[in-house]
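Quick review question:
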């Protein structure tokens, strides 16, 4: 008996007129989650150039820690705040259909990070920090992203001589803006203050 192995091009879709078009940034992630939903799969594995989801971009924050699991809502907040490891639309689709997404390294045989619904007790207080280079925004995400955490972050930044402005708080998210030339130093300080 022969197997049927479908090969589906990611990153492509069809517009309302039936023309083939690209889905934009994160289109391959979104395609994978949409296919998993269409097949009523329990899990979707996405293989990429990183071996999982970290508490910050390990290329700019050397102390970043790889997560074994992260909650859908926290991953969605990170994606919307500038983290580029998974696209927000992919996470939304997975959450809507109850599909676990495992982000794995293409060059590694290790387990990746699983994005799923987690019990409250398993969540990190702050699960990650990210940045938006264009706006100079540093954002921390997690259930511990409270006014108290915001004060800790702004105090640590100001102690390091970095002026933090335009502080924002939302449920599970805090952010400040800094001068763009201080963005990566600020990201490392925020990570050290809130996560390590």
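Suggested answer, residue by residue:
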């Amino acid at each position: 008996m022969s197997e049927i192995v479908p090969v589906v091009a990611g990153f492509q879709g069809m517009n309302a007129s039936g023309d083939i078009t690209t889905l934009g940034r994160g289109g391959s992630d979104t395609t994978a989650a949409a296919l998993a939903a269409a097949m009523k799969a329990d899990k979707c594995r996405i293989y990429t150039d990183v071996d999982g989801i970290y508490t910050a971009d390990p290329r700019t924050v050397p102390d970043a820690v790889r997560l074994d699991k992260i909650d859908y809502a926290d991953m969605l907040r990170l994606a919307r705040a500038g983290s580029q490891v998974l696209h927000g639309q992919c996470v939304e689709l997975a959450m809507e259909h109850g599909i676990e997404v495992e982000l794995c390294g293409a060059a590694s045989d290790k387990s990746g990070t699983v994005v799923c619904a987690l019990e409250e007790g398993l969540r990190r207080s702050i699960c990650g920090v990210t940045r938006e280079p264009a706006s100079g925004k540093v954002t921390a995400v997690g259930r511990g992203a409270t006014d108290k955490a915001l004060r800790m972050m702004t105090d640590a930044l100001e102690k390091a001589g970095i002026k933090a402005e335009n502080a924002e708080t939302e449920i599970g998210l805090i952010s400040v803006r800094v001068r763009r030339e201080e963005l990566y130093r600020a990201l490392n300080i925020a990570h050290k203050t809130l996560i390590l």
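Why it works: The helical segments are 27-38, 72-81, 88-97, 147-159, 183-194. Residues 147-159 form the longest helix (13 residues).
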